[in-house]
Amino acid sequence: MDLGIQDRVAFVTGAAGGIGARAAEMLAEEGALVAIGDINPDAAEAEAARLRDTGFTAIAVQVDVASAASVDQAVAAVSQALAPVDILVNNAGFTRDKRIGRMEESDWDSVVDVVLKGAFLCTKSVLPGMIEKKWGRIVNISSRAYLGNPGQANYSSAKAGLLGLTRSMALENGRYNITVNAVAPGIIDTAAVRNLPHFEKIRTNAEASLPLPRLGRVEDVAAAIVFLASEQAGYITGDVVHVSGGRYG
Ligand SMILES: NC(=O)c1ccc[n+]([C@@H]2O[C@H](COP(=O)([O-])OP(=O)(O)OC[C@H]3O[C@@H](n4cnc5c(N)ncnc54)[C@H](O)[C@@H]3O)[C@@H](O)[C@H]2O)c1
What we know:
Blueprint: E1 9-13, H1 18-29, E2 33-38, H2 41-53, E3 58-62, H3 68-81, E4 87-90, H4 105-133, E5 136-141, H5 153-173, E6 178-185, H6 191-194, H7 199-209, H8 218-228, E7 240-243
Parallel strand pairs: 1-2, 1-4, 2-3, 4-5, 5-6, 6-7
Helix pairs in contact: 1-8, 3-4, 4-5
Protein name: 3-oxoacyl-ACP reductase FabG
GO molecular function: oxidoreductase activity
Domain Ketoreductase: 8-190
């Protein structure tokens, strides 16, 4: 199936590693011109260079998604180097896990600012260009944690909020042929997850209890992102695709 995104410009945030990097690579494999956005410029450049070495068109753009000025600057840089953004993947995010009693205001703000405000700022910045072209795809990377997780009040709230943003943006922008969807991954085997002290327990639990008995792979999530970003997904909007091995609770 031709996904119909040849030469579309894709801006993936937090794409220097993990899920975002694989999503950017798979978008490039489908012919998209990709911008690797990340707060870490060296890692972003290394990832863009890796894609260019494979023959793809890829640039690195430093961005702090929690800053409106930084986001607007990055979106303008993508537009100048490639063309206005057609596909936005709001992927930047991290955890700062603590039970609520020990959670500092800064733990709350840092996670909510990057995950939720970051997606708002990036969406706001790319929308005028998409509206002008009457074509756009926005994919927000939520998490199964939107359903609630002990120790993750900040992360869970931000990821749940992202679904509200997804629905609202889908309702506002359908008339411009812009779709807005979310992907909610379960536990995915990334460096961030492997570095957790109880990684082995997480892996064993997944193998013992999930309907699909393994941890997720970055490819599993990236494939869902790429499909939602495609021409072929043009009649799907405001939806959430769970990539969680069958775990919903
Ligand atoms: N790995 C999982 O199990 C899992 C599960 C559910 C959801 N997710 C979500 O998927 C996304 C990617 O996760 P990952 O596991 O690949 O993580 P990762 O740490 O490999 O990648 C996240 C990237 O975001 C970048 N980043 C952090 N703050 C930023 C900022 N302010 N501006 C721009 N970039 C910033 C980091 O530098 C990093 O490269 C995140 O939103 C995460 O919450 C991951």
